[in-house]
Amino acid sequence: MFPVGQLWVWQNPADGRLRIGNKAAALTAEPELTPPPERPPLGAKPNTFEPIATYAHSGGPAIALSASVPERCRAIAALFAPLTVHRPADVVLEYDRRADGVHTLWQGLDVLAHGFIPGRGQPGSAFSLAFQLLQKLLSHRPVMAILHASAVRWHGSTLVLCGPSGSGKTTLAGLLAAAGGEHLGDDHIVLGYPSADVIPVALASTVKEGAFSILLPHFPGLAHAASFTKGPTPFKSVPMTDPSRHARQERLGALVFPKWHAEKRAAVTPLRLRPEEAIIHLADAGFWCDPAHLGAFMSAVDTTPAWHLEHGPNAQPTFDALDTIAASGIRS
Strand, coil or helix: what is 71? Predict the structure, then answer.
């Protein structure tokens, strides 16, 4: 059990899942023996898989990804494209996504992950192919957590912009990079153990259709980038992170939870969050944490400045607010 401000975080011994509550609930917690959500049936392993690409990061293992239906891997292929290498694979992963929404990842005969893509009201266990790939690619480095976030070094402080899809974190990170910030990563931000430093990983930035016009003046490559869809939404990807920076970690300066408002054009006032509010926002955004490093991760959240920031199309008020956040953040 680990305190975070006025909240406590612990693991349910029955299923290993994280629980969040007050101190009284944590101290009296017993294994919850209620049946877990029904898992989807595993099904037989497909007979054939077609290669997607082989990826590697900063001296780590080369991971070859194959899929039973390659067309269902377009988003992942676009996201990981900057990490593509042309050398023999150390590990082969085989991915299947059935028509009923069930996802399975194999390494040989071993099932590494199996479940549904996270979504509201979905039963069963959550599945993230990106998290699984990143854990394999970084298996040579101690990883504390992976956040659903973007990261930019801004005025001497590393800002990690966390939020669910649609919060504007990629758009904001792109605007900061165009204004002189150093783009460290997008969509999935890796924190190293034990210091919670940001490990830059040059994943491509995936941009929704609504942000094309905002970012196109700064990243002309968007005009010619191939589009793909996630559900009904068109996306394009564009590299913003310099792949040569892989070896240098950056000290976590501040957690920022942006919220996009298309009509917001006035001055922006950031709201400082208590640690317990930050952990709730992180849970809403989505993250993975190595259970062995849960205490260190909670300690990092407890000691890192965290802010809520509403932003809109007018970039200058947002930049001014982020100047304030960077000045108050941990600097390196």
Answer: helix
